[in-house]
Amino acid sequence: MYLGAIEAGGTKFVCAVGDSGGNIHERVQFPTTAPEETMQKVIDFFKSYSLDAIGIGTFGPVDLNRKSQTYGYITNTPKPHWTNFNFVGTIQKYFHVPIGFDTDVNAAALGELFWGRAKGKNSCIYMTVGTGIGVGAIVEGRLVHGLLHPEMGHIVVRRHPDDTFVGSCPFHGDCLEGLASGPAIEKRWGKRGADLSEQDEVWELEAFYLGQAIAQYILVLSPEQVIIGGGVAKQSTLLPRIHRHVLNHLNGYVQHEVILKHIDHYITLPGLGDNAGICGALALAKQALGDK
Amino acid sequence: MYLGAIEAGGTKFVCAVGDSGGNIHERVQFPTTAPEETMQKVIDFFKSYSLDAIGIGTFGPVDLNRKSQTYGYITNTPKPHWTNFNFVGTIQKYFHVPIGFDTDVNAAALGELFWGRAKGKNSCIYMTVGTGIGVGAIVEGRLVHGLLHPEMGHIVVRRHPDDTFVGSCPFHGDCLEGLASGPAIEKRWGKRGADLSEQDEVWELEAFYLGQAIAQYILVLSPEQVIIGGGVAKQSTLLPRIHRHVLNHLNGYVQHEVILKHIDHYITLPGLGDNAGICGALALAKQALGDK
């Protein structure tokens, strides 16, 4: 049995064919251009396979409401040409199989639940820090949807008293994303994060904000596992600093030994590494097959 | 068919017998004293009925993990005599029926989903502002559990620049509960909330904090309905002020007409009024019967 997976990002697409064990058999990657051109490459890649289901984890915002007329669409994205693009409909025209469709971070959370660091658990969150800050969540074994989908990157954080950076979010100025995303780091310090790895104060401030935000997610969702992916998380000193700040913010309130004694196992990098996104799309395909 | 319901509060217990339509047939209420005495009254009330299930919505913290040895216990509560009390086990000794057990606010959220303002929806949050601030949540039709249960009343909020009150939370000082609970209002203004109803500045500040917190819950959980219960919510000017502050904080980011155009229907008082808690316990009983 073959499953198709699409990891649709703002700058690149990854497509893969894999199986229900989370194994990738073949993959391809190309830049995200106009929808017609990009989708043609997706279709060309998949058409030689007999697929049983396809999963799509995509940039957004997206319409996930199955009762909505625009279910399966990318909605009001600032990305040129992709506004109101019927993603599911376009794929369905060529492949008459069940299609799983969700945000990129929700997909990655599901991938980690099926085959990664949250394996065997009923809940987790997957946070990615890059151009934006996105967080996917699973509660009681199910991806969190609702009115729309979570937009956790935009929560309010309390500012560090020494931080005078105005923030980079066009909607909220100094929300979490406005203070701690890749572009926020670059604007505040005048260099890209990758070129600042030796500067302790950069990562201490970053951990102050990310740790504070993760403490809030823990208070609201009580996830059994917290996973941090994306480029920024690879800074080697960041994760231990985040552990410290999360404990600081919770201040002993959440009495569970996983937090009090094993925070380094509780908040981790993805078990699937850089494959969290594409395996997540594969997990959506597997789930779509089960839902049928 | 009869269902039993227990709303266990820190100061009073309400017990009721009702049906699966959410109707209460008989109810009784008594002060919360030592567990033995209190539970005897519960048992005496229920024993003349042939009950099919019992639901318990209780003060906490509680252990909701069914795999845990202390499932069904009230755990490390500061309330004298109730620490490590085996609530489910005590009831089960007398009544051999399915028992639903959850936090008081999760119960109220379920009651509102079954029979109140969130009827027909898949998700909602129920917030209560009183001695503490508690929030229950339902996502994809299921009560939110995880590592423990949500403790949303303790999230961080950004302080109002004119507010110099130090905060009343023993764990976090000026978290949401420390700034906006009933005791926080009383300490800040020197009077109980009920005696401050004419003072606009009290409710404007309260709405600033509650609105900010609700905006965070919307970003994290994307609930289809937000319900505010408890004594403080009854201040007549509070709810419209909260509507304004939620819109301010989201600043157009969550593009859904329910928020942008109908916020007064989106964030409301409980449909079940003061019965939200006891009907919630009834809903837990109904759910326990279905889970069997």
UniProtKB/TrEMBL annotation, chains A, B:
Cofactor: Mg(2+)
CDD domains: ASKHA_NBD_ROK_BsFRK-like
Family per similarity comment: Belongs to the ROK (NagC/XylR) family.
UniProt superkingdom: Bacteria
Reactions catalysed according to its record: D-fructose + ATP = D-fructose 6-phosphate + ADP + H(+)
A GO term, aspect molecular function: fructokinase activity
UniProt KW keywords: ATP-binding, Carbohydrate metabolism, Kinase, Magnesium, Metal-binding, Nucleotide-binding, Transferase, Zinc
InterPro entries: ATPase_NBD (IPR043129), Carb_Metab_Reg_Kinase/Isom (IPR051804), ROK (IPR000600), ROK_cs (IPR049874)
A Pfam family per the record: ROK
Record protein name field: fructokinase
Naturally occurring in which organism (per UniProt): Anoxybacillus suryakundensis
Entry EC no(s): 2.7.1.4
